[in-house]
Every structure is written in structure tokens, then in C-alpha cells.
Design goal:
This protein has 147 residues and is an alpha+beta fold. The chain has one domain: Gcn5-related N-acetyltransferase (GNAT) (Aminopeptidase, 3-Layer(aba) Sandwich), CATH 3.40.630. Helices cover 29% and strands 33% of the residues. The chain has a 7-stranded mixed sheet with strand order 1-2-3-4-5-7-6, sandwiched between helices. Helix 3 links the parallel strand 4 (65-73) and strand 5. Bound molecules: coenzyme A (COA).
């Protein structure tokens, strides 16, 4: 099994490559580079030298809520706990930064992701119609991190 670690600038090509597995609303190389340069918390799952998934968490100064902005696992590595490991690291880091909540948006037809978040204690707090580029709707979810 691999490890979860913080992403570094050298991971940029791998992060860009993973974006192709999103059906839409992909992060550009430019945006990923911006996030890597200390504007976000980026986590990667690495196994045998390969980056199999990543998670992007955004913070806003003065806000008690961190935002899980992106989470992706390479199709060949799905179903074996990679997303769960990334999510747990992201949550722990947010907690360590003093955040009390993690919030996120997920497509309402993305059953795998909805199941993942529900299993990890996220609760539905609302729905936003026409959220994605293709006009798909988002479910908004939230989890209290503080125990
Ligand atoms: C959603 C996604 C990140 C899950 O990654 P993963 O590494 O396969 O997930 P895990 O193996 O860690 O699964 C953890 C839990 O998620 C749920 N889950 C994951 N894939 C699932 C699927 N295909 N169907 C139903 N539940 C699923 C399960 O509850 C699973 O726990 P279990 O195996 O004990 O039942 C992955 O499918 C993906 O990258 N999808 C495309 C990008 C995406 O949708 N990202 C989320 C955007 S909000």
C-alpha cells in the first residue's frame, strides 16, 4: 500500500494527468500550479513511484471551515481505499490548522463520491442547481471535524 503525502511542485505533471479522469470542470495546469505554490493544501497518494490520486483543500482566513475542493483517484486504483486515505489526511490537516468543519460540493449523480462522503460522516446541507459547467447540480455536504 502507498502513502499519503503533501504534493510538491514536481508532482504537477501527475496532477495534470489525473484531471483527465474528471468528466468536466477540470483544474488547469495554471490553477494547480497556483494551488501548489502555497495557496492550498494538496495531498497525493503515491505508490511505487506513481501518483494514484490527489485531494485539494482550500482555506479562507478567519473561516472555521475548510473546503474539499477536489478529490480524484486514478481509475485503475479505485475501490481500494485511496480516496478514503486522502480524505482522512485532508481532514486531520484541517483540524490541525484549527478548522472545525470540512465542506464540499459533489455532483448529485456521483454515487461513488456521495457514498464515500456519507460513509465518512458528511451530512447533506443543501443543493445548488446549475453548479457545474454542464449545468449539473451539486449536493453540498459538511462534516464537523472537532470531536
Ligand atoms: C469517488 C472516488 C474519489 C472514490 O475513490 P476510491 O479510491 O475508489 O474510493 P475508496 O476505495 O477509498 O472507497 C471508499 C468508500 O467510498 C465509497 N465508494 C467508492 N467507490 C464507490 C463506488 N463505485 N460505488 C459505491 N460506493 C463507492 C464506498 O463507501 C467505499 O467504502 P467501501 O469500499 O468500504 O464500501 C473515485 O471514484 C473518483 O476518483 N471518481 C472520479 C472523480 C470524482 O468523482 N471525485 C469526487 C468529486 S466530489
Amino acid at each position: 500500500m502507498g502513502i499519503v503525502r503533501r504534493a510538491v511542485l514536481d508532482d504537477l505533471p501527475a496532477l495534470v494527468a489525473l484531471e483527465q479522469f474528471f468528466p468536466g470542470d477540470r483544474l488547469s495546469r495554471r490553477k494547480l500550479r497556483y494551488f501548489l505554490k502555497a495557496h492550498a493544501d494538496l495531498w497525493v497518494f503515491e505508490e511505487a513511484g506513481a501518483i494514484l490520486g490527489d485531494a485539494v483543500v482550500l482555506y479562507r482566513q478567519g473561516s472555521p471551515a475548510a473546503r474539499l475542493y477536489s478529490l480524484i483517484v486514478h481509475p485503475t486504483a479505485r475501490g481500494r481505499g485511496v480516496a478514503a486515505a486522502l480524505l482522512e489526511h485532508a481532514e486531520q490537516a484541517a483540524l490541525d490548522c484549527g478548522c472545525l468543519l470540512m465542506r464540499l460540493e459533489v455532483r448529485e449523480d456521483n454515487l461513488a463520491a456521495l457514498r464515500l462522503y456519507q460513509k465518512h460522516g458528511y451530512q447533506v446541507i443543501g443543493r445548488t442547481a446549475d453548479y457545474y459547467q454542464d449545468h449539473g447540480s451539486a449536493i453540498r455536504m459538511r462534516k464537523e471535524l472537532a470531536r
